């Protein structure tokens, strides 16, 4: 999972600050909002686990999106249930 500090540092080193780019940034607030829409409550650690799951398990041809977040939330909740 990427930390904002590390990401910003990398961008400063490797990118021209005038370069035009398209990016999407997903954070724990997005995760909690999506979980609430699914009637699921997550701990802060579970929200971070969702982001990590999304990063590790998404289809690169599709990218990160609300559906991949929903699937990641379901996987994290399933792990909670099996513990």
Can you describe what's shown?
Helix content is 63%, strand content 0%. It has 83 residues and is mostly helical. It has a domain at 25-82. Helix 2 (28-37) packs across helix 3 and helix 3 (44-57) crosses helix 4. The longest helix has 17 residues, at 66-82. It is elongated.
Compact overview of the structure:
The protein is an all-alpha fold. The chain is built from four helices and no strands. The mean pLDDT is 93.
Query: What kind of sheet is the major sheet?
Result: none
Strand segment tally: 0
Task: Please report which band the strand proportion falls in: under 5%, 5-15%, 15-25%, 25-35%, 35-45% or over 45%.
Answer: under 5%
If you average the pLDDT, what whole number results?
93
């Amino acid at each position: 999972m990427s930390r904002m500090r590390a990401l910003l540092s990398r961008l400063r080193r490797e990118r021209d600050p005038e370069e035009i780019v398209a990016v999407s940034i997903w954070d724990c607030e997005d995760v909690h909002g999506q979980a609430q829409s699914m009637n699921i409550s997550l701990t802060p650690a579970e929200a971070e686990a969702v982001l990590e799951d999304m990063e590790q398990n998404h289809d690169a041809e599709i990218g990160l999106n609300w559906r991949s977040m929903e699937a990641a939330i379901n996987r994290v909740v399933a792990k909670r249930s099996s513990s």
